[in-house]
Amino acid sequence: MKKISVLILFCLIILTTLTKNSSKNLESQIFLKNETLSLLKEKNEMAELELSFLSSPEKLKKYHELYFKNELKIQDINNFRIMTIKDNSIFIEEKKIFQND
Fold it and tell me: Is residue 99 one of the residues assigned to a domain?
């Protein structure tokens, strides 16, 4: 009788250990999935925010009038220059973005 009790106790200890290890593995997998999900949610929010700004020129015009009324000016894109810094020297290149035919 004593041997059977010890055997049953030993089996229960092994089953408990296996259950604990498997639940620990599941918890770590759940944590990783939640981290991935939170990163994807953050990327999605940023993409939605970018889409809302880029898809609505009216909003941009409204914000321009509200916040930058006298600070921003319309510029011809061909007047822009490319500035590069190399070996403590500044180089400015004039490049045509659009060529007028």
Answer: no
Q: Could you tell me the pLDDT band of residue 99, with boundaries at 50, 70 and 90? A: low
75 inside domain: yes
Q: How many domains does the chain have?
A: 1
Q: From residue 58, how far is each of 4, 34, 55, 66, 97 by CA, in Å?
A: 81, 37, 9, 12, 26
Could you tell me if residue 79 is inside a domain? yes
- Run of H or E including 70: none
Q: At what angle do helices 57-67 and 2-54 cross, to 10 degrees?
A: 70
Q: What is the CA radius of gyration of the chain?
A: 32
pTM tops 0.70: no
